[in-house]
Amino acid sequence: MNGRRAWGCAMLALGILAAFLVALFRYDNANTHPQMREWRVYSADAIAKNDSLGKQSAVLFYARWALSADAKGGLFTTDIDRALSDADYVAMSADLTDSSLEDFDALKEQGFESIPVLVLYPRNGQPIGFEGGTPESQIIGAIEKLGRSAAEIHSAKFNFAD
Fold first, then answer.
1. pLDDT tens-place string over residues 106-145
2. Contact 92/159 with Cβ under 8 angstroms?
3. Cross-sheet strand order for the sheet of 128-131
4. E strand or H helix at 140, and its extent?
């Protein structure tokens, strides 16, 4: 009888531990990005519209089948979102999970071979991409640098002191 009781206690403890881990996982996922703004859905027309309005765009291209623990490759964080917001980027996401090859061809034409990738479309210059796994500090540094450059260009356009 002692063996059955020990087995029952072990199973009960295991069940409680499993319930705790499930609750912790759900809580963590629900609060992963609590202060992030909602990213818009990507379209080429939206990029063109932002460009015509003098706004910079950032697009996170990803697919749920991507071979990583995080389909977004660690490129979708609160700190990156904050840096994009501070630099006045319009943030968009493009879920390519069910996309056609044409969508991937468009990325390849821009020089990006894999996903996930966060692509910055600055006001002036070529798109700049960061693949999944790129250190967050490197991405934020680039966003800040590009944001300063855009602000300097913008202020120079309206500097009538000379």
1. 888 888 888 899 999 988 778 999 998 899 999 999 999 8
2. no
3. 40-41, 89-95, 56-62, 117-121, 128-131
4. helix 136-157
